Q: What sequence folds into this?
């Protein structure tokens, strides 16, 4: 995308994706993804499937540094993700970096993230210089969103535990949740980088509006004088959420890539419908299959449960499930010789959005 000139010196703009950049976006979105009306269905469903201890660490470690989740930003920026040798970093590279940092480095990143919360509030506060627990409570309290205050204090008092739990969360989030999804989305992320890199814009604001469909947040716009480089990063599950990392002199702006082609077509007066819309509509055209979807909306179920609740033959249920699976509306998870079925809300919403375009 070349350079954007906003006074002096020149403000550089780039488009990039990497595992650390994308994973930071995903884990930050997942901690917020409690409302299926606001957030991407994959995020909401994946959050529900997290082990309780992983979810607890997610809310603790991303819930003590304000609404912008500064602690996870500190982890990312400690890696220097835009250094030339790290632009293609793998998860193994990022994890090795996190494991290699000292306990004290984690304590300092946590303190820095809370200090940034105070600065946002316009009331900078000195970091407690001793083990006075009440002083630490007063310091940490403004940053608490989801975490338990006393648990956070305990972690700050024991940096080795803070490091252990942070590394464990990142590793488990990748291995048990996001790693396979990133691999699946990677071709689309790279395609989005290539497309965006071929465009030019007169300003950061116009680039962000075109790529994301949103206006640049005022807190970002007003800080551009302190930024030297802007990096646009595609996100597969961002949806309508506005996400950025303002870490002068760096600014990272995330933009959603799902539906971007359809949005462009609508702006040009054309409707682009998914090629597999018709199988989905056929799958939804049967009353029994709609009943199955309604049941799976409540919870994952195995085939015999569905048979029992519908009161029809197992062979008939199997045929209906096969149609729904072929259309991508339900997903199947084998476990101990049984098949468990769950609704694919993302696919259902894709069909609904395609129908809305027709209107």
A:
């Amino acid at each position: 995308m070349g350079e954007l000139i906003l006074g002096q010196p020149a403000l550089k703009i780039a488009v990039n994706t990497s595992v650390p950049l994308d994973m930071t976006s995903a884990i930050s979105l997942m901690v917020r993804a409690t409302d299926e009306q606001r957030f991407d269905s994959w995020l909401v469903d994946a959050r529900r499937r997290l082990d309780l201890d992983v979810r607890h660490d997610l809310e603790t470690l991303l819930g003590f540094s304000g609404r912008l989740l500064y602690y996870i930003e500190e982890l990312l920026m400690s890696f220097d993700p835009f250094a030339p040798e790290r632009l293609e970093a793998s998860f193994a590279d990022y994890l090795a970096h996190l494991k290699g940092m000292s306990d004290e480095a984690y304590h300092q990143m946590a303190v820095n993230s809370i200090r940034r919360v105070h600065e946002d509030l316009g009331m900078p506060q000195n970091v407690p210089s001793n083990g006075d627990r009440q002083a630490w409570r007063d310091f940490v309290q403004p940053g608490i969103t989801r975490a338990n205050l006393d648990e956070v204090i305990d972690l700050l008092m024991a940096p080795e535990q803070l490091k252990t739990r942070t590394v464990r969360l990142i590793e488990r989030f990748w291995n048990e949740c996001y790693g396979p999804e990133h691999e699946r989305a990677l071709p689309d992320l790279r395609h989005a980088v290539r497309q965006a890199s071929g465009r030019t814009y007169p300003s950061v604001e116009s680039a962000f509006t075109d790529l994301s469909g949103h206006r640049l947040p005022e807190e970002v716009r007003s800080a551009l004088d302190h930024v030297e480089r802007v990096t646009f990063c595609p996100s597969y599950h961002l949806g309508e959420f506005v996400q950025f990392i303002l870490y002068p002199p760096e600014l990272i702006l995330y933009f959603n890539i799902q539906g971007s082609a359809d949005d462009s077509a609508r702006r040009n007066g054309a409707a682009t419908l998914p090629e597999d819309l018709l199988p989905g509509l056929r799958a939804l055209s049967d009353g029994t299959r709609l009943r199955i979807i309604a049941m799976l909306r409540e919870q994952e179920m195995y085939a015999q449960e569905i048979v029992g609740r519908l009161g029809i033959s197992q062979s008939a249920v199997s045929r209906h499930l096969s149609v729904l699976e072929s259309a991508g509306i339900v997903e199947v998870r084998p476990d101990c010789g049984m098949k468990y079925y769950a609704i694919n809300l993302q696919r259902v919403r894709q069909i609904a959005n395609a129908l809305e375009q027709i209107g």
In short: Residues 159-197 form the longest helix (39 residues). The beta strands are 3-4, 11-15, 229-235, 244-247, 250-256, 301-302, 330-335, 338-343. The longest strand covers residues 229-235. The domain at 277-358 is CATH 1.10.10.10 (Arc Repressor Mutant, subunit A).
